[in-house]
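Hey, why these numbers?
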Amino acid sequence: AELGRGTSGRVYRAHDDKLARDVALKVLEPSLFDPLEVLHEGQLMARIDHPNVLKVHGVVEDHGRLAYAFELAAGETLAAWAARQPTLGARELAAVGGELAAGLAALHHGGVLHGDLKPANVLRHRDGRWLIADFGSSQPLGAARGTSGTPLYMAPERFQAPAATAASDQYSLGVLLFHLATGRYPYEAADAEELARHIAGRQRAALLDLRPDLPSALIQAIEQACADAPEARHASVGAFARALATAVGHGPGAERRAPVPHWQSTIAIAVAAVIALVIAIGLRPSPPTAAVDDIAWRRGTPGGDEPLGPGGAVRVGDVLALELRLDRPS
């Protein structure tokens, strides 16, 4: 059954009769790919095993046609998910960015550049993980050949030297987060030629102008990833992830959280008791549970996430987050 199609080929749901499992099979457009390069890249991809990268099982060849065999992940694209959400708050942006940066870091460590990171090429697994997918534009690290890409997500240097780099993958991730935060792009245009003119003239939008409510450190982290010059970006996607985490209070150097007010502590005890009761009823017998040291509800809004306190209205379509601090892994 066909699952989707793009410029580089079509994706089908298929059955691997040797290993008795269903897979996603991307059948490549023959005129766009060199068989030896596809085989080499498939070998590189098959060695990468990371929870935020769609698993590539290998390359299939049949009567001159080549295809990648992928893990068949249940879920939807980030593009489809984001279309139903308001613009994301600071913590959500950092969470999505951190997972995708981890996936890119695994690819780069394995010697692979993605080359076309965008919401349509990211999957949300039904278990909540974000998975980097669609490697039709990927290439080995250090390859000097050009590749395809999506202009709005392409780093400025790729309009002159189209080969992808680790820095250009980072730029694409920065643009993706910029778009999730604002619904806009740093550079916008109707076509690639107009986009190139805007890039040459530095006619770009500023994240601060569009989302002044976001923490300044988060704005700076995303803007640095979207810097025009590769050398002005973060030293690596790992450094970008660290900056995102620090900006929302989850990384080294982050400010300590303020003490929880008494009324929040009261809610914490009540909600923790309800959660414990549900677990006790639904999961019998259960292993010893971790103690809850801190608990709080937050609601995502177009202006950023905010605490949800007593008497706060909960509306249809709200995105809610329950923050728990436990005394041990659980």
Observations:
- The longest helix spans residues 262-282.
- The radius of gyration is 22 Å.
- The CA atoms of residues 91 and 248 lie 6 Å apart.
- Residues 253-266 have pLDDT under 50 and may be disordered.
